[in-house]
Specification:
Length: 245
Amino acid sequence: MRAHAVTHASATPTFWRFLLAELAAGDEPAPVLEQVTLGGEAVPGALLAELRRVFPAARISQIYAANESGSVRSVRDERNGLPLSALADEPHADVALKIVADELWVRSRIGMLGYYGEDPVDPDEWRPTGDLVEVVNGRVYFRGRRSEIINVGGTKVHPLPIEERISGVQGVRAVRVYGRRNALTGSIVAAEVVADERADREDLADRIRAACAQLPDAARPRSIRFVDVLETTGDKLARRGRQET
């Protein structure tokens, strides 16, 4: 960014977390960005606040999009989630959203024509996105992907709210929450944490547990492991398939 005088950048929240961590660890000033765009994953409020602090002159935009439907909504109010107005019933709109059984559904007349080898997609058909959401005080908050739900003894646990709590603990550079197999409950909640180089890991683990103490019992991390890097796929956190014993 410095070498090429970059002024506009678009990336996943995971990419921005690691970029901010690199800037914090160095001595050089942050690039002067005019536009910061995030997409591809849910965006925690703490990340938005940190981006505003580091890039005070930038306009910050969040894009909700999918390969099948294209860009669906753009939000610039620097709050995580979507405004409830994003669900406005507009029959003639090219792209529309609705919630069905806590899952976001989309209808897109400007997206893909269909999947290769299958019948064309009906442009007026509603399709599930796989994104689980919750409406709180007029705001639509993302709670994770349906495929990422952790089943702890029959209780469904979403990783995103836990990650948001842990990422707010001072000394945490990045975190991934996933399900780990357990003989008694089927799965337990586990967390991999990239810690600040100056942080005392034992103390940091205690503060992470304290931050999660008010969560429901099934949602509290039973395993906290410190790692140097987090596994990613396409600059997104890889949570699926993390079921090691």
